[in-house]
Design brief:
Layout: H1 2-11, H2 20-32, H3 40-51, E1 56-58, E2 69-71
Parallel strand pairs: 1-2
Length: about 70
């Protein structure tokens, strides 16, 4: 438990704050892409990456070929 706490404390300053507007944008994105059956968490990650102007790194084949995505296997 102590090791986990130490690791958490080292990373805490790297956390991304989630603006409530991004949560709304995530819900809209997921609804527009409902046929792809994305998980809500993956959609949130995608929207946060887009907002921060970084690529979304994923191994989910459903994101392959989408803008702002780096697909890896």
């Amino acid at each position: 438990m102590e090791l986990a706490e130490e690791f958490f404390n080292r990373l805490i300053n790297s956390f991304v704050k989630i603006n409530p507007e991004l949560v709304k944008e995530t819900a809209n994105f997921r609804f527009k892409e409902i046929r792809r059956k994305f998980s809500y968490v993956d959609c949130l990650g995608y929207i946060i990456a887009k907002e921060n102007k970084i690529r979304f790194l994923t191994g989910d084949i459903r994101f392959k070929g989408m803008p702002n995505v780096m697909f890896v296997q």
